[in-house]
Design goal:
alpha/beta, disordered N terminus
Length: 226
């Protein structure tokens, strides 16, 4: 019975089209070196000029990928969940400050740490596509803030997990559903691989739970789609 149910969820959720009315969410991506100045002043937080130069030169690459993928990301999210992104403008600030990527739903701002996509910063940079997926990840925090999941059976099952793990279970499940819906298995593979080596191990653990079985993620998607 469980296999039948999982198969039904897979067919139902992933066969949904993306033909619904376009989202009214607007995302403005920008990099302003002067905004990074404040974080570069404290001792041990300096930002090298070659990092700034590389990010400025590669910002158009990020924008090209984002502009190509973002309509698909947003439409698939809304089609799968049956819910809309908020009608607002989000300012997505690219940064090379020593700070994590974050979202601030109350102010409509997102920051994306670009350091590890730069060849001038690390000899083994992540792809620019991964950073685009990171922006999508942060937008999903805003989406789920607008559509909170109440009385989640799955979160109760994982009550002993760290709060940061629990906060990402439905989000990562939805991100996985979107990337599979868009036939982007390689992008999904990179997201899981890079997320799983981030400090703290919270993403790694969250992905382990979401990927416990081939269809485990669909349970989380079903909860947020209610």
């Amino acid at each position: 019975m469980r296999v039948v149910l999982d198969t039904f969820l897979l067919v139902t959720l992933l066969s949904l089209g993306c033909s619904s009315q376009a989202t009214l969410l607007r995302v403005k991506v920008e990099y302003n070196p002067s905004e990074d100045l404040a974080c570069s002043l404290p001792a041990g937080s300096s930002i090298k000029e070659e990092w700034k130069a590389e990010l400025l030169s590669r910002e158009p690459e990020f924008l090209r990928i984002w502009e190509a993928q973002s309509p698909r990301f947003l439409a698939a999210t809304e089609a799968i969940s049956g819910k809309k992104f908020p009608s607002q403008e989000i300012v997505a600030r690219l940064t090379i400050c020593n700070s994590p990527s974050e979202s601030f739903p109350e102010t409509g701002r997102v920051t994306i740490n670009m350091r590890f996509a730069l060849k001038s910063f690390t000899p083994e940079p992540v792809s620019m596509r991964y950073k685009v997926d990171t922006l999508f990840h942060e937008l999903l925090h805003i989406f789920l803030n607008r559509h909170p999941i109440e009385n989640s059976v799955l979160l109760k099952e994982h009550a002993t997990e760290d709060e940061r793990v629990r906060d990402h279970l439905h989000l990562l499940a939805l991100q996985k559903a979107v990337l599979l819906r868009l036939n982007e298995p390689d992008a999904l593979k990179e997201v899981i691989a890079v997320d799983s080596i981030l400090p703290g191990g919270y993403y790694k653990r969250a992905w382990e739970l979401v990927n416990a079985t081939n269809t485990e993620y669909l349970k989380y998607v079903a909860e947020l789609s209610k």
